[in-house]
Amino acid sequence: MLMALVACAAPERQDAVGDFRSRAVTRADGGVSVAVSVLSARESAELYGVPLAEKATQPVWVEVHNDDDRPYYLLFPGLDPNFVPSSEAAEAFAANQRPDAQRQLRERFAELAFRNPVPPGQTVSGMVLTSLEEGVKLVQIDLAADGRTRTFSVFTVVPGFRGDYQTSEVFKREIYPAEALRHVDDDEAFRAALEALPCCATNGDGSRNGDPLNLIIVGGLEDAFPALVRRGWRPTETKWSGAIMRVVTSALSGERYLNAPVSDLYLFGRPQDLALQKARDSVHQRNHLRLWLSPLRYQGKPVWVGQISRDIGSRMTIHSPTLTTHKIDPDVDEARTALAEDMAYSQSLAVVGYVGGVGLAPPQAPRQNLTTDPYYTDGDRLVMVFYQRPVSLSAIRRFSWHETHGQHEPDGRRGTGVGVGR
Predict the structure, then answer these.
(1) H or E element: which one contains 352?
(2) pLDDT mean across residues, the chain
(3) Where are the domains of the chain?
(4) I need a labelling partner for 237 at 20 to 30 A (CA). Which of 84, 187, 291, 402 fits?
(5) Beta-carbon neighbour count of residue 169 at 10 Å?
């Protein structure tokens, strides 16, 4: 079975080493602008001459241009509390080399390092050595000056990662014609539009309902997705040969796989535009969600319709092309509530609420998803609106229609003290 799966998967390809500066993500605030790029393992080995990834180290290139009237200092712990000073990293590789090679290596690491400060009217660039991450990396840039700070959250993709979202058209162009977009500013009209959405994701031809659509996320690459990554959510890989092999080896070894692929569910006639997961102790256990971009726009922000559940094990099934599937926790409301509580700590969750639309399925009469796993729910959808600016726990606002939620409480979790729970 394994050989058949690998044969059907997309072939492995070598990742090209390009100019990391050309793919830098830029941000600006007032008179200060930054550019950020994360290096792959191959790029860092070519640049430094030593395999940094083998010591779980990943360079992040940062460029700061300062048109302000005072010098700024880049705070390295903001990028990574466990950042590695360039001198320490150099010594880790220099120990077993000849004296002349040691000297050259130390000079190379020092030459590439970012150096504070960034004087007014000048540009400073260099590397900060951070912990190795796969898939995506949220780079936090905190710049401090006398009486002033500049903060940027930069969502970057690590080269070589084959995220399934990268094949989605929604990240390349506007997929809905202008006449199909529905702009909503009023909260009650927004609630009605959300409750009118389909109850569930479906199979490919739409003939069978699957998991409940119990999640609404308002935001995008500037706010919502960085917030999810900040809390440990990672995008899933495409189902190519390397990913399938890693699923198998992770299952046999019991190790985690932070970007394990997910199966396709359908809404609006297409598979999910983005899938994210939060790995637990092994590949068998994870929280995962799927998102589809809708034609709705709330106060100018994109609206994503989603499905979230908690995987608690694996089993064989004839209802999946791979003959295996994850078993979900039947209390899907618990995963939904846990996400709200998790995102309250993201510093970006601004507004939260619940609406109907899924339909009640009590524990005594559960529904089934496409792989016949039972689930029960109070029938509501979690709605979360994200802002780019920092939002404290006490500042999270609830939709005015929040209080009507909670007529059914399968898991008994009511309230969290900050208004994000059930």
Answers:
(1) strand 349-355
(2) 83
(3) 18-157, 164-404
(4) 84
(5) 11
